[in-house]
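hey so i finally got around to running the thing on that chain from the lab meeting. sorry it took forever, my laptop kept dying and i had to restart like 3 times. anyway pasting the input first so we r on the same page abt which one it is
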Amino acid sequence: MSKLSSPPSAPNLISVNCLVIDKSTGEIIGYGGEPSVLAGKTSYQQELSKCRSIDDFEDHISFIDRRKLPPHELHALRDAVDYAHGTWRRTGVDCRITLPQQRLLTQLRDLVLYHNVIYISQTALASKLSVSESNLIKKLRTLTDAKLLIVRTSRDGIRTGEMKIIINPRLIFRGSDEARERYMKWWYRPTCSLRTSEANTSGSTGAIARAA
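ok and heres what got predicted. didnt touch it at all, straight out
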């Protein structure tokens, strides 16, 4: 077996652990000093449900080609508003989404990069919503009390100074219809609390977390 003095130049030759191999046949051609294609650190996508900071989330979505995601529109929110209003008119059950709630959801929708989750610093979110940081939770309460939103902070394991916002996927979702259906199934699962629903919504069944 010969030793190649220069790196393999043919397109079908690769270097693996100092062996020059023909990709088409698997034949070992010789030895070479070219760095192995197996060398270097392998990157793995962290599960969405395990993201605890903006950095974690950015690392997660770095594996996703967001150009291939469906258009990020407000149709689902508007449909939900109309349906709730119709239910109220027909049955008298008031499940309407109020105008203040609609405005806040529209603002949050602009911050959703992927699926129904937002990772953001408290300072940045307060600025986006034009409120002080001290009034931020109060501002979001109009949605959390209506079970339209889940908020996680450092008390829930999120990095100090940052927040994780999870929006009801029936209202706002950036992703495939199939993924949205799975998220909705977990959100409305009758045997689960909101906290359990969050965990399953963000990263259940493996496929959701590994894009999810």
